[in-house]
Amino acid sequence: MKYFPIFLNIKNQPIAVVGGGDAAVAKLRLLLKTEGQITVYDDAPAPEIATWADAGLLTISRPPMSAEQARNACLIYAAAEDDSRDAATHQIAKDAGTLFNWVDNLKNSDFITPAIVDRDPVIVTIGTEGAAPVVARAIKRVIEGRLPQTLGKLAKIGQAFRPHADALPFGRVRRDFWSAFYFGSGPTAYDASGPDGAQAALNELLQVFAQQTPKQGHVDFVGAGPGDPTLLTHKARLLLDEADVVLYDRLVDPRILELARREALVIEVGKTGFGPSMAQNEINQLIIDHVGRGVQVVRLKSGDPSVFGRLDEELEAIAAHDISYSIVPGITAASTAAASLGRSLTQRDRNSGVRLITGHDMAGFADQDWRSMAAPDTVVAIYMGKKAARFIQGRLMMHGADAETPITVVENVSRADQRTISTQLKHLPQAVGNLDGPAVLLYGVTPRIKSCKIYQEQVFERCN
Ligand code: SAH
């Protein structure tokens, strides 16, 4: 991020716009929404500017801006659309040390004016660091459509009501009260009966919420999917929006954590399947402690929580404390990997079942029913199989598996750095040798798509 967005208090602060043509008018339309004291420096300003001056909204100065005026200004805009005049303004602003914007000249500006959705005092700003103004405008259109026109007015009414709402218990109850106002009865009441209606809605809601007993704590065990945030369930998104505390495993993609409420406490519990981890009893205790405070906890696990997620251990731990919970499934790594190969995990006439196994368990490399897995046309999704690759290969061959059985290894499924390697059982340890991301091994599966690498006889080749 090259530009840091901030909200500058410009109430009663001098703002200088140097220039009086179209560019100045466009900027002024925005600046006139503020409570700044605007001066336009120009000797022949456009008629709109003269009209605004007559209405007392800004001042016109025919003499050019002095060094002292530049020093006193809070912001200076060069909007003359004349290179030499704008360059002169730039120099004055620089000498004065005042924040400066040269309209349509990003390189020589200290700051950018973002696209704005104005529901004063609710202001949404959108910026692309000058990279893609079209994108900013498209986002603005979407947000304009989503935010009720009355939102700003409601916010002002709500602001005045805050001391009354502070009587409600801090945290969830108070938050729910405000949500019920802004996204429930507030807009409807305002549309029907204006400010008085919104005020009445607040009073009514306060009565209802004051009688509520504080909510009990609760934990949701939520699947975060394999990485791509668009593969998250809608329910997972809603719960992330609501959670007070998010306890997540290391494999959960950072893009998904971004979706948690900004005020939420987001804690990594450093678990990667059966890999090195915060002790399981510490994780259990964290859940119990936070739920005990009466808050909403999301226990976020990569993929599906019920697949190699040690879910039952956590469920058993909370059962002793009579804690309410729910489980929200997620998309597991194996199905995402198969989808990316253009394959299904089961297929009529090929395999009537699929196994999900782990290469590792608590005791080390995990033992399996190798004999049945070695049978032709078996499909197995192997999680945590990289380190165990040689062991798995050895066991399967020992039980008669064909050394040429296809295996597709998919690393970093659904992430930008996804890698797909198509190989055979006889090459498995070498093929996974230098992968460092999480990988799922699809035994008995070949990719239908071509954008993968083939590992054969010590070398990687591209498929196409
Ligand atoms: N609950 C998870 C699995 C957790 S165990 C799920 O349903 O997907 C951790 C193992 O899952 C990793 O060692 C790897 O084998 C697999 N895995 C998880 N995320 C992955 C990803 N994005 N790409 C490939 N494999 C992944």
Describe the protein in words:
- The protein has 464 residues and is an alpha/beta fold.
- It folds into four domains: 14-146, 3-Layer(aba) Sandwich (Rossmann fold), CATH 3.40.50; 165-211; 218-331, Cobalt-precorrin-4 Transmethylase, domain 1 (3-Layer(aba) Sandwich), CATH 3.40.1010.10; 334-443, Methyltransferase, Cobalt-precorrin-4 Transmethylase, Domain 2.
- It contains 15 helices and 21 strands.
- It has helices at 22-31, 47-54, 67-72, 83-96, 133-146, 151-165, 172-210, 234-242, 254-257, 280-292, 311-319, 333-341, 370-374, 389-398, 428-431, and strands at residues 14-18, 37-41, 59-61, 75-78, 99-102, 115-119, 122-126, 218-223, 245-248, 265-268, 296-301, 324-328, 355-358, 360-361, 364-365, 380-383, 406-411, 419-424, 439-443, 453-456, 459-462.
- The strands form five sheets. It has a seven-stranded mixed beta sheet. It has a five-stranded parallel beta sheet with strand order 3-2-1-4-5, with helices on both faces.
- The two termini are 37 Å apart.
- The protein binds S-adenosyl-L-homocysteine.
- The site of S-adenosyl-L-homocysteine has 23 residues, from strand 17 and strand 19.
List its salient traits.
single chain; 464 residues; alpha/beta; Rossmann fold; Cobalt-precorrin-4 Transmethylase, domain 1; 4 domains; seven-stranded mixed sheet; five-stranded parallel sheet; 15 helices; 21 strands; binds S-adenosyl-L-homocysteine
Determine the mean pLDDT: 92
Strands side by side in the biggest sheet? 13-16-19-17-18-20-21
Please identify, by name, the CATH architecture of the largest domain: 3-Layer(aba) Sandwich
Quote the CATH topology of the largest domain.
Rossmann fold
**Highest CATH level, the class of the largest domain:** Alpha Beta
Rounded radius of gyration (Å): 31 Å
Superfamily (CATH H level) name of the largest domain: NAD(P)-binding Rossmann-like Domain
Ligand list: S-adenosyl-L-homocysteine
Low-pLDDT stretches are none
Number of β-strand runs: 21
- Cα(first) to Cα(last) distance is 37 Å
Q: Give the number of domains.
A: 4
